[in-house]
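Supplementary notes for students who missed Thursday's class. We covered one full example, reproduced here. Read the sequence, then the structure, then the short commentary at the end.
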Amino acid sequence: MGRVWKYGDDVNTDVIIPARYLFTSDPQELAAHCMEDLDPDFAANVRPGDVIVAGRNFGCGSSREHAPVSIRAAGVQCVIAVSFARIFYRNAINVGLPILECPEAVQALEHGEEVEVDLEAGTIRRTATGEVFRAAPFPPFMQEILRCGGLVEYARRRLAGTAGGPAGESRS
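Structure (token representation):
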């Protein structure tokens, strides 16, 4: 369960992690500055398990991987948006940041309320009312990439024979 941090359309990678912090690739340093140009209170107040909810074209702008890395390192369990910029979508999966497209949830959810996200089922449940929103769940191989924490770790495990196969079953 996590709190909703709600933002609008076209949240750019430059406000997710400002360019002045790109001198580092340290996830914790990036997390300390995540969203600071859009929401100066975010990095200091986000808690593990919280959820970002945003409008259309989340992650537009430059192709820097630092943006989803900073969000994941800040403890955000999932980003829910109407839509994602294509490169952000790809980078999020590659670094193990779960994302869901669900316009109905974005329209209904408010900043600060509690939600429970089930990535495997693709559901978002509003805790206060029990209302459930449905997003398309990822196919099993993408779920396995997310469970592994990203594409690099997934590849390591596959090479070692310990990651899931095409249907997501564990080989260990």
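Commentary. The longest helix spans residues 86-95. The radius of gyration is 16 Å. If anything here is unclear, bring it to office hours.
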